[in-house]
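Exercise 7.
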Amino acid sequence: MKCPYCNAEISDDSLFCGVCGKKLPQEKKCVKCGKSLDVNCDFCPYCGAMQNPSVSTSRESEKPSPSPSSVNQSKISSKVASVIASCILALAVLGGAAYYWFEIREDYSLEGLAKSISNYDDVFSFKEGLAVVCKNNKLGVIDKYGNEIVPLKYDFDYTLGYNDGFLIVKKDEKYGIIDKKGKEIVPCTYDRIWDFSEGMAEVVKDDKHGFIDESGKEVIPCSYQYVGSFSDGLACVGKNDKYGFVDKKGNVVIDFVYNSPSSFSEGLAAISKDDKSGFGYIDKKGNFVIPCQYSDARRFSEGLASVEFDVDEGYGFIDKNGDMVIKPKFYAYRGGYEEFKDGYASPFILGKDKWGLLDKKGNEILPFKYENRPSYSEGMILIREPGKSGFMDFNGNIKVPMIFDDAHNYSEGLAAVEKNEKWGYVNKKGEEIIPLIYEEVFDFSEGLARVKKNDKWGFVDKKGKSTFDFQ
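Solution. The predicted structure, written as tokens, is:
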């Protein structure tokens, strides 16, 4: 016979061509008409007879049986392959599920919210997955699908929502705390409660102040004239018009010898011991590490603190050694919020009437020429001039033109902007993502923003879809 590939003469029973080396097509005889068929043919194309699937060439029938070891090895290989295939399939399923939950599936229902909030007089921004709702001066809580988690049974009181899993509630002029399931952690027995800080919350009873922990236990009795929030593991407390510091067990760590309340930040606290010497800084043992020499002093942030020697000189910045890093020439905003964040100082008043922005070396990132206080978030500086607002970056480049009547800082990549008494949202390129159709708006929080339209409050998502679409 001839090789079908190279035409060389080969023996009839060859499996491979001796010249080109290619495997030869296998044939078998039809069980009925005897004509040559392909070895894998199940039916004869000539007579239609069904062939025996076990028929094999004589050479194949002469192959030796595999040894037990090779059979075992084959079985093991088959099991390994099966396990690998199962793992790949499982990973594919998990990956698909993860993609659905985190990329496709929305963790809210605008339709459910639209139906739910129509039953309330007011609804507040979402925080930690829950939002406070109000009706007839009663407060409750809903989730992002509109389900009522806490019924309307508490007296309405202004609240910012959940903080670290807890919500402060009011009933019969007394305050308590509930968790995310509505379980009462602290009964409504206190005259006032503040949010938790470092696992401790300030409480007031009969004009005396103390602390509770997150289990609701009053770990520091209400016995002080004043208490501040815990910071760096200590809280400032006052009695008999003197101030000291306690730890979370209520132990007095720094005695009551100071004239002013304070709080620790980065291991130091600005404090005054008497009215004559002014302010200095103590460590957590109560030792003065920077002497009392300032007429005013503020908290440390990112290694620097603003201080004032003299009212006429203004404020400058010192480091933790007391060395002046940025010379005094700035004037503090009311109450003083001049702290560094991300390498930049919160804006100041210079010359008592202009605003600007500094870096930690004292360089003017934003010239002190603005009438209104600038602010920044997510790498963008909000500039407000009389009747116009826009955004620039920290290099002074205008990123969003000052064509808006008003604006908010960026939150979750979008900023609320106003024009002609209507609000919407733009991205960091200044592109209008959500049209300016709302009467009032709040910043985005957890993917949703609280907005007002036709005197009704609702929610809009980052795609511009809102609860009003379902009303």
